[in-house]
Structures are given as structure tokens and as C-alpha cells.
Amino acid sequence: MKKAGKIFFFEPNEEEITKGDSVIVETSRGLECGKVVVSPRELSADENPESEPGLPLKKIYRKATEADLIQLEENHAAEKRAFDICLQKIAEHDLPMKLINVEFTFDVNKIIFFFTADGRVDFRGLVRDLAAIFRTRIELRQVGVRDEAKLLGGMGGCGRPLCCASFLGEFIPVSIRMAKDQNLSLNPTKISGVCGRLMCCLKYENDLYCENAPRQNVTFRPKNGSRVVVADGEGKVVAVSYSRRNATILLDTNKTVVAGWEDILPVNAEDFESADDAAPVEEPKPIEPPKPERPPRPERSERPRRSDNFNRRYNRPENFERNPRPERPTRPRGDRTRRRDPKR
Questions:
Q1: Which CATH class is domain 69-147?
Q2: What is the reported pTM?
Q3: What's the rounded mean pLDDT across residues 189-209?
């Protein structure tokens, strides 16, 4: 049970369920122990985006008993031991990955290891070793930096616990344009969270700023070689696309990102120009007169034969017949003379 996990809906299955009860449910990962946070009520289709239309909700398996809660505590203790074992195996295989968290399903039918890495990691040997130790299904799941901060938790720059680890069930999209609308400093170190991405709290008051303050509707286009600021940091523009209205930026960390013109802010205002003024105006193409219709081709039987055209060209009569080619005399195989090489 996570403090800031996602909310899923299940059918009570004629059980007297109240808010705060611990229940055992069946999920895609297997049996899980969860906590009821919403009292039973009628649910509309719009409130449950996780379920497909026409499919019934999954049912609650049963209420959690004292033995189930003890089993849950034992699973949490086993997760810590599995974390240490996995760290040792990662060091033995010398894999470029960072282990974040370990989760057991309630029935210990599957163990999930969460990790982060810069690229793809070949962990097949690691999975074989872990499966031989724990004798159950092993899943290694790679997550991003925002999910890492959500799993580990921590304190934000405001002095409070991280929003993603406290109450945010899902991540909300945040753009650097929100910081521009709120007249905040565009220094990436001040508007980025512990994960290195833009802080989620930029979204909280953005609607209020957009309603009270007129938003600038003019879009500016960066120039090649100009210094800009994007959500991932500061860098240099290396390519600009007019058709897609985006730019390719080489960050100071030697990382290349692609961002739209609306999400790019200049370091110097002189390096940007209005996109409306810079857009090339296409001249209308002249209307070409219609081409004359081509006469229909005669049928194959009416076409002149090739021999007739040849006779007409060389002034030959139509009934001209070529002399038959004389037959080549045959030579017996035994009389065939052998060629000699003149160099010999």
C-alpha cells in the first residue's frame, strides 16, 4: 500500500466495506492488499478510465484478516533482504543500473525490482540468478527520474515532502511556459525539483495566472546558434524546423532534445524573431491552361505493320520479298583444323 498510489475501483461483491478497511483484491500483478479510500457508491463510466467499456469491474476477493496483515509485514521485511541481495548480484554482473525499490505481491507470486539506467541494460543473467534464489517470478522494471523521486520520496525546496510522494497519484504535464506566465525566474536550478525536471507545483496556480493576466499569443522562433532555456536546462539551438515549429537543442550536458517554439525561452531577446514575420509566404501558382485532348489511339488491327513502314521509307514495293539467306555449309567434325597461336 503506497501513500500516493493510484486509485482503482473494484466491485464490493456483497461485502460490507467501509472507508479505511484493508481488503485483498486481484490485479494484473496478482493478489494485492489495499486500503479502501472511497466508500461504496455508484460509479459512472467517466470516473473509471482504467476499465474498458463493456467489461465489468474486478471484484474484491475478501477482507483482510489479522493473518493477512502479518503476512503483509513479513513481505515488507523480505523486500529489504531482497534489495540487498539484488545489489550484490548487480555488482557481480557489473551492470550500469541503479536499484530503486523492491515490491512483493501479497501471495509472493512475483517480485518486482525497480531500477534506473541511462540506456538499455542486458539483465538476463541477473534475472536467472534472482529466480534461482527466490524461486518465483522475477520482473525488472526500468523507471524514469520522476518515478524514482516518487518511490524514494524526499524534501522539496519549499521544505515540505515531495508532492509526488505525498498525494499525487499521477504525474501532470508541466512546461516551461508556465514559469514564464507566472513571471518566475527561468534559472533551471530554481524551477527544477529533486528529480531534475520542472517542479509539479508550477501547474497548481498556472490557471489562475492565465485567467487574470493576458497571455502573450505571439510565438517567437529561435535562431540557429542562439542560447535558449528549455525544461531540461540551458543549451544551444542546432536546428530549426519551420514545418513542425520546433527546434533541436544541444544542452550543456551534451544531451540533445527537441522542443516546440512555445516551450523555448531565449537567454537574449535579440536571438528570437516573430514566427509570423519569419514565416515564408508562398506565392500562388499560376493557373495553367488545360492541355488539348489527345486523339484516341487506333486499334491494334488498324495500325500499320512495321515492315510496311520500313518499305515505305526505303521506297520498296509492298510485295517486296527478301532473298532467302543461303545455308551455311556444314563441315565434318574430323576435318576441323586446329587454330595455332601466332605467338608460338
A1: alpha beta
A2: 0.58
A3: 82
